[in-house]
Amino acid sequence: MPELPDVETFKRYLDATSLRQCITAVDVRNAYVLKDVSARELARELKGRRFKSSCRHGKHLFVRADHAIWLRLHFGMTGFLRYFKGEEKARRHARVVFVFEKDHRLAFDDQRMFGEIGLVKHVDEFLKKRGLGPDALDVDLAQFKNILAKHRGPVKTILLNQKLIAGIGNIYADEILFRAHVHPSTETSALKKKAVAKLFRATRYILEKAIEAKADADIMPKSWLLPHRGKRGKCPRCGRELKSATIGGRTAWFCRHCQK
Ligand SMILES: [Zn+2]
Fold first, then answer.
1. Cα 101 to ligand 1 centre (Å)
2. Domain 141-254: which CATH number of 3.10.129.10, 1.10.8.50, 2.60.40.150, 1.10.510.10
C-alpha cells in the first residue's frame, strides 16, 4: 500500500517525465477511480493544458495544470504511475491514461481500484475538508510531542491516524517503531520524553531513507524490519523470531525482545 515514501517517489517520477507537455487526451478506462468528477469533465479541464508542477501531502499527490486547477491522485492499495511512449501499450490495470503530444502517455495503474483521481481548486481547502494532519516530514519535534501528548491510545494507532500526521502507513509505522525500540501497543501516555524524541528522529530517518531507496523494499537496508517481516521472519538485531499482533485493526510486526 503506497505510503509517504512511495508517493514521494511517484511525485519525482511524474516531475521527471510528465511536466510541460501538452495534454491531447484523457483516456478514462475505468471511471471507478474518478471521485467527484466525470470522465468528460476531467477531459474538458485538462485537454490542451500542461502539467506545471506537483506537490505531495501525506499520501496525496497534487499536480497543477497551467490554469491553476489541480489533479488529485491517491494511490489506494495498489496504485502507481507509469510513463511510456509510442508503440508501447497501456497495461491491463491502467485506469486513466493522460495522453501527451507525440503519443507520450502517463498511466495511473491500479489493480485493486481503491485509488482516487479528482480535481481540486485549492489544495489547502481540500486538506482542511479531509481533516488531514500535517505531512509527516513537515512535523517538528514540538508538534510531534504535542500530538502524542494530546492523544491517548497505542502509539502505532496514533502514528497511523492521517488526521494527526499524514503519510505514515502500516509498513513504515512498524519500521519507525522498530528503529526507536518501542513496542507498537505502548500507550502514548506511558511514553517517556526520551522515547518520544527517539520516535520523532526515527520517523524522519526512516521516511527519508525510504525515499532515497525509491521506496523499493529490495534496496532497503537489511538491518530494517521490512525485508524480514512476515511468518518465520527473524529480528535483524537479535535474531529472535518476529511476532505479529493486530493493533488498531492492522497487523503489526515487531520484535518482543528489542521493542519493550
Ligand atoms: Zn530483536
1. 53
2. 1.10.8.50
- The yes-or-no verdict on residue 227 having pLDDT over 90 is yes
Q: Determine the distance separating the centroid of ligand 1 and the alpha carbon of 156, expressed in angstroms.
A: 18
Q: How far apart are CA 157 and CA 163, in angstroms?
A: 11
Residues catalogued as catalytic = 2-3, 59, 250
Burial state string for 185-198 with b = 16 or more CB within 10 A and e = fewer than 16: bbebeebeeebbeb
Q: What's the CA gap between 13 and 15, in Å, rounded?
A: 5
Q: 166 C-alpha vs ligand 1 centroid, how far in Å?
A: 28
pLDDT at 228: 95
* CA 96 to chain CA centroid, nearest Å: 19
pTM for this predicted structure: 0.97
Residues 144, 151 contacting (CB under 8 angstroms) = no
Q: Are 220 and 207 a contacting pair, CB within 8 Å?
A: no
* Four-point Cα dihedral 198, 203, 207, 208, nearest 10: -50
- Under DSSP, the state recorded for 240 is P
- What are the residue ranges spanned by the domains of the chain? 4-130, 141-254
Distance 158 CA to ligand 1 centre (A): 23
Query: What does the radius of gyration of the chain's CA atoms come to, in whole angstroms?
Result: 20
The class of domain 4-130 in CATH terms is alpha beta
For residue 86, is pLDDT > 90?
no
